[in-house]
Amino acid sequence: MTNPPAPTAPSPTNEPAGVTTPTTTTRRTVLKGAALAAAVAGSAGLAGSRAFDLEAAAAPAHHGVFGYGVASGDPTGDAIVLWTRATPPPETPGGPVATPGSGLGRPLRVRWELAYDRSFRHVVQRGTVSATAATDHTVKVDVHGLRPYTRYWYRFRAAGETSALGRTQTAPDEPRREHALRFALVSCSNYTGGYFTAYRALGERDDLDFVLHVGDYVYEYGNGPDRYGPADLVGKRDGIPATETVDLEGYRLRHALHKADPDLQLAHRRHPWITIFDDHEVANNAWRSGAENHTPGAEGDFLERRRQAYEAYLEWMPFRLPAQRTGDHQGTRFFKRFTFGRLADLSVLETRQNRSAQVDVAPYTKTGGGFIPVGAPAVDAQLADPDRHLPEPEQLRWFERALARRGRSWHLVGNQVIFTPIRFPGAALGLPAGDYLNSDQWDGYQADQAALIAHLDAHDSGHGDAVFLTGDIHSSWAMDVPVERTAGYRSAGVEFVCPSVTSDGFYELVSASAKGAPAPAVVQRTRGLTTAVASANPWVQYLDGVGHGFVVLDVTSRRVHADYYLTPVPTAALPDPRVDPAVLPSYATSWRTLRRTRRVVAAEGPVGRRSDEPRERR
Ligand SMILES: [Fe+2]
């Protein structure tokens, strides 16, 4: 995500700080000068040495063979991916431990079992796989031949130990049938940003078919001046490794840190996940050959760094790499589609690997995009250049074919950055008057954006209605997708955007700029900012920039309903709920779109019982 410059009170010259100091338009610089930097500097020892990193990362490994938990993912009607990390015991007592990223450890035979029941009286399939250092001792089993819409239980065994018990289910995908479909939408889980209580809340639910994570599952930042998150968590929730992740060992350790988190372990153990990366799984505001947070030379070659980041992602996530069917892929094909009977399909986009470089405008952005003024002919021409792309043309065609397909009520879209055209009023961002857009979003790739909107508009609801499901911007939105940006717009679809699990949102940015202001005043200023943004974009029906959490989507042939679960509004007593491990997001508001309306409206919620349940043997 590219955060806006922290809004500030006008300076005596009436020059907003965001302009007088151009680099304040990057998120990292926003953190500099904040109280955080002083706090980190004052506890430099906590950042620690390499030895400290390895010791800490080894802790879950010392907890046993399966200290990093279990997970399942990419459910289809007849298949599911099972995942774990199997740490081989030391070959000699007190010998070296095969910690993540170490490359150490002998191969380990791992037995897996999938059963209809938690007691494993009715085992459906079992097998053996080898965990080796080549894949950081992670294992993935793609189990096929399963029954649709059925609950399963799974576990692993190795070296005399048994893993935690995992629960999963196949997709509600049966030809010509329609089942209930309910899932959670999450994004942006910065480990140093707070406790993963949103994941705990998901893990405690029994009504989800899967969890959809649309990116920023991990962040690349270190514990030094680039640390990202509240100072209160220094020493309590530090990154591993302590420095920015730039190579395979670093990315493996960062993934291992997440997989050691008890709340995240719970959410993985209880539900299958569908995931796709955004930028921070590699580096901030990445494009096809670079990133805002990548320094060529000092941090090596970007494409080699990215290759290693993807390798760690594929090792540590329950992700099924789709078939690399045709010869014209640019790089690796990650985008994929899921189907849910005649109810819906879900296209999961991947928008980083091949995207053209973002449009930058000095002094607002240097590299990697961000909030830039619109209206200058040279800038607008770049933004609309048809040779610039967000997804590569092959993926765009694949996506357009899905959107035009008849026979299902809904085309759900797992998406990273906001698709809907949004203009940010300068005053709301502490910038000079005028309109701004975030050139890292689809707004920065207007030829692709316009072509897709026209494509949606050209197909009536008989082809199904599109629902974009998005993350990245660390705030909660519900909106229509306007065909033309006027008050009397026609809508081509809708978009629901989930808040971050923990990453800084508008509230934290306002707080950083309003040094020492009490929480209620910061909340009020944040609400002023989001109200101004919504007012400037009449198709935005809901926008919250304060809470963190997740969205639960419930889909029927009649409507798609979205329940937003948010952390409590900050108070003087608890100005940052992310730092309290006892505070969970709770139900906040509901929005929905009715079939054939392509509009978002307020709804009663939260949703109640599912209309049906997956098959389960108890
Ligand atoms: Fe993010």
Give your account of this protein's structure:
The chain has 618 residues and is an alpha+beta fold. Helices cover 22% and strands 23% of the residues. Strands 5-2-1-11-10-9-24-25-26-27 form a ten-stranded mixed sheet. Helix 6 (197-203) runs parallel beside helix 8, helix 7 runs parallel beside helix 9 (302-316) and helix 14 crosses helix 15. The longest helix is centred in the last third of the chain and has 18 residues, at 519-536. It is globular and about 65 Å long. It starts with 16 loop residues before the first helix and ends in a 16-residue tail after the last strand. Bound molecules: fe (ii) ion (FE2).
Please write out the topology.
Layout: H1 17-20, H2 27-31, H3 35-41, H4 44-47, H5 50-62, E1 70-73, E2 80-85, E3 108-115, E4 123-131, E5 138-143, E6 151-158, E7 161-162, E8 166-169, E9 181-186, H6 197-203, E10 210-213, H7 248-259, H8 262-270, E11 272-275, E12 286-287, E13 290-291, H9 302-316, E14 336-340, E15 344-348, E16 371-373, H10 377-383, H11 393-403, E17 410-414, E18 424-425, H12 426-429, E19 435-438, H13 446-458, E20 465-470, E21 476-482, E22 491-497, H14 506-513, H15 519-536, E23 540-544, E24 549-555, E25 559-566, E26 586-594, E27 600-602
Parallel strand pairs: 1-11, 9-10, 10-11, 15-17, 17-20, 20-22
Antiparallel strand pairs: 1-2, 2-5, 3-4, 3-6, 6-7, 6-8, 9-24, 12-13, 14-15, 16-19, 18-19, 21-22, 21-23, 24-25, 25-26, 26-27
Bound molecules: fe (ii) ion (FE2).
